[in-house]
Design brief:
GO cellular component, one term: cytosol
Order of helices and strands: EEHEHEEEHEEHHHEHHEEEHHEHEEEH
GO biological process, one term: amino acid activation for nonribosomal peptide biosynthetic process
Protein name: Condensation domain-containing protein
Distance between the termini: 55 Å
CATH class of the largest domain: Alpha Beta
InterPro entries: CAT-like_dom_sf, Condensation_dom
GO molecular function, one term: 2,3-dihydroxybenzoate-serine ligase activity
Shape: globular
Number of helices: 12
Largest sheet: 8 strands, mixed
Length: about 425
């Protein structure tokens, strides 16, 4: 905090309290957090809301109290294990949420609040700062613990906070709560869905390579984990043009291209990628503030075919992968252990794909000359590095571009940059053909 910053609190009280097992999404992200600690701040993420109209600190605190009361995830913390093998979630009926009041730049404040890990047992899973312009609040900064929300859940919270600031209430039925979801997942219907997903993981784990990245790099960096960001208007135009030509989503085009590039860099003819799915296909989960996102298992047989042929094979494979993402991590752990014992070595792809865009920009045909001309505006930057990560190769799609976060002990920084540029080249070549 700066000398001019001060702290206040939001007193909240909401319906319901109690304990329940972690939801599948919570359990999945908790396992990733444990494997990444002490660098688990990697999973924190923030949003900045420009406050509509002219609002005092007191008015914004009232809206925040209503937001936390409505969404149980924002007043849920981990409970220490009590006779159980893993933590439970604990929903609290009321409490006090610390809030920073500052005049600093909201984006900088957000980065500062994201930069330290959460205390998952003792701290509320939401950090808040109010940015002042004079005596009025110009922006609200929200930083979420990933146990409480994923990107879509945070977007719901941001939308609801804006409505509360505009009109003081939300004219929709109460949202579902993580406790309700955990109980459904443990019930008969949830178990049937889990068993279907587990069958997919078990079948594919018998045929994929044990891991995508197994050969040590000859030039690891310090720290080992780095992120490269490719900003490429040419890639974006090419992807949309390919999607239009093949009646596919831009996300499927990029997932297919990622699997192909992994194959080129590793030599595997069958490639396994773990795409992150939002898992918000049930009516009762559309507006839930919770961590619903989980990894699915996407497998693609390359066999020297053209990119058009790969894309045709990838479409049904992607559908199966996203269905398998709604799974019980306990089932996945059991399948992983069983397949590893059967094959005599651990099975873990260590290769992820996360489309973090809130909307697919959609197919759009583009002239080849426009695509190739845009190549001159491509650039690669290195926005992040850290010591630990629970994966070896992670492609993220954002509005800023395509980023690759990798463990340089398995993929060096020069190879990371080359991989992104070859991804661009593959897609541009496929589009201009």
């Amino acid at each position: 905090m700066n000398a001019t910053d001060r702290m206040t609190h939001v007193e909240f009280a909401g319906p319901g309290s109690g304990h329940a097992p972690l939801t599948w999404g919570q359990r999945a992200i908790w396992e990733a957090i444990v494997r990444t600690a002490p660098d688990d701040h990697y999973f924190n993420f923030g949003q900045v809301l420009k406050v509509p109209g002219s609002r005092t600190v007191a008015e914004v605190r009232t809206a925040l109290a209503a937001l936390v009361a409505r969404h149980g995830a924002l007043r849920t913390r981990l409970a220490e294990p009590y006779g159980q093998a893993e933590p439970y979630q604990r929903l609290e009926e009321n409490g006090r949420l610390p809030v920073m009041v500052t005049t600093e730049d909201p984006e900088r404040v957000m980065r500062e609040l994201e930069a330290r890990p959460f205390d998952y047992v003792g701290e509320w899973p939401l950090r808040v700062a109010l940015v002042l312009d004079g005596d009025r609040v110009s922006h609200v900064v929200l930083v979420f613990c990933h146990l409480a929300a994923d990107g879509f859940g945070a977007d719901v919270a941001l939308r609801d906070l804006r409505l509360l600031l505009l009109r003081g209430d939300i004219r929709r039925p109460d949202a579902s709560q993580p406790l309700d979801l955990a109980r459904w997942q443990a019930g008969p219907e949830g178990r049937r869905a889990a068993e279907t997903a587990a069958a997919h993981w078990e079948r594919e784990f018998r045929r994929i390579p044990p891991t995508m990245f197994s050969v040590p790099s000859d030039s690891p960096a310090e720290p080992p984990v780095w992120r490269a960001l490719l900003s490429s208007p040419a890639l974006e135009l090419a992807v949309r043009s390919i999607a239009a030509a093949h009646n596919a989503s831009t996300s499927t085009v990029l997932l297919t291209a990622t699997a192909e590039l992994v194959g080129r860099f590793t030599g595997h003819e069958t490639c396994a990628v773990l795409p992150i799915s939002a898992n918000r296909f049930r009516r009762d989960t559309t507006d839930i503030v919770a961590t619903m996102s989980q990894e699915g298992l996407f497998t693609l047989d390359r066999q020297g075919t053209s990119f058009a042929d790969l894309l045709r094979a990838a479409r049904p494979a992607a559908l199966r992968a996203y269905r398998s993402a709604y799974h019980d991590p306990a089932d996945r752990n059991r399948v992983t252990a069983s397949a590893g014992a059967e094959r005599g070595e651990p099975i873990q792809p260590y290769c992820c794909f996360n489309d973090m865009r809130f909307a697919d920009p959609g197919p759009a045909r583009c002239e080849p000359a426009e695509i190739t001309a845009a190549l001159a505006r491509s650039s690669v930057t290195w926005p992040m590095s850290q010591d630990k990560l629970n994966c070896r190769f992670c492609v993220h799609l954002t509005t800023e571009g395509v980023s690759l976060t990798a463990d340089t002990r398995y993929l060096s920084r020069p190879d990371m940059e080359r991989c992104l540029l070859e991804l661009e080249g593959l897609l541009v070549e496929a589009a201009v053909r």
